[in-house]
TrEMBL record:
Domain of life assignment: Eukaryota
SUPFAM superfamilies linked to this entry: Protein kinase-like (PK-like)
Residue intervals of the Aminoglycoside phosphotransferase domain: 45-205
Organism in which the protein naturally occurs: Letharia lupina
Regions annotated as coiled coil: none
Name of the protein described by the UniProt record: Aminoglycoside phosphotransferase domain-containing protein
Amino acid sequence: MAEEIIEHFQTAERDYTVTRTRFIKRELKPSEYHKRQFGNFGTIVPRRVRERLENEKDAYRFVAEHTKIPVPKVLDFLEEDGICTLIVERVEGNIMEIVLDELDGEDRKRLIHNVTAFVEQSVLPQLRKFTSNRLGGVSGLVIPPNRVTFRDQRPEWRSRTFSENQFTFCHNDLARHNIMVNPKTLEVTAIIDWESSGFYPAEFEADMWSRSYRDYVPDEASTDRLIRLLDQPSAENFPVTMIDIPDGVIYMWQTEDRDRHCTLTPSTFTKRQLRPYEKSLGVQGTITPFPWSRERLKNEKKALEFIAEHTSIPVARVHAFNEEAGISSLTTKIPVPGARMDILARRLSNRDKAILLTHVNTFVNQIVLPQLNTLRSSKLGGKIGMTIPPIRVWKRDKRLSWPARTSNTNRYVFCHNEISQEYIWVDPKTLQVVLLQNWECSGYYPPEFEYPYWRKARDEWMNNDDEVDRLILFLDKPGKGSESRLFDRTMLRTLQMNNLS
């Protein structure tokens, strides 16, 4: 049963609904766009509302998880008919500016004192503990504060990464209308509206809580300085975002060819689909399609649960699978911290590299493959019931659907299908494998599908086109005819050449 609506209103950018327990804000539908009243007549089209709601949702979760700053709890983030909606828990209290208008004398002074002390002694010190090498929000969106976008109305701001952490976390709009207080105790109950928050130079955090919004006049010279900071070039173009938090480091990166945004914390690993505005444009000006993006995440979830139950292969534990506004994400718990083999190998001596490769070969050939070979099926494909071929296949053959096949015997074994150095995580001290990641393309296939990626770094891979063509031939014609027998004999020779048989 729907809750009673206490208040409902619209601005030129949003639709707001307040119930007893929830605060809801969403994008306007095109039919709700406001008309200009003065100057240039026409329709006011809100800019980047979806991105700002995304940024606020990410900020609420980040602040709630890593600080004691009171913020609304995110209840849902959804998309319906192309319209995004953010639903948060309604917090206690009222807006500071409204409460101030009802006070006078000592009570007014006490409220201002309480808020100033809370912001300067609690909020800012906690936020400044977080630093990053990337300009912009928690997920990389650059949504500058209003005083910047009012002066410079460019449609989009570019995020950049540097090799050093030089930005601190800023709310960017700590004004009185974004501070909730208890009208009786005059204490702060929550900080709201984190749409423009992110990692910026510390001077972006103007002291707007100390004066009325009506009295706050942004200094144009100061605003121009902020714009110059946003435009400063980054020669490094560092590929990984690093966020320092009190109990470790958060790493974030994107892999466009996999349609993935990845976040690694000290205890969890999350990967999700890229949001539309995070994708690069192809040569024709359209977003390059990536097949089975959501299905691969679902397949990995099923595979991780299956491997954890039926083998002793070290894998991450599934924590959550979420769907928000058309974007799927998979979060796993990391039981033992480790480093990616490919990254660690770059820092090792030749002697230690040889030791590492020996450990990995032993791990794969004596622990992983023997256990996977005991997991058999008569049905070809992944745990979600569809065939998701290895990356080397779908990079050569771009079809979006592969036939489902069933054999008379359990001839198919469970294959990871991409045991590469970037998905093998090792202990930097012992050089022993602690985790095997990325089971997105895993499933039941002939054992020959398990290509020895772990033996070389990604830039040294030599995918043989003829061999890949044989894999494609098998997927198309996996029966017991001459093509299948030829495939089996040829792949056996390939295995022998790779010293894997």
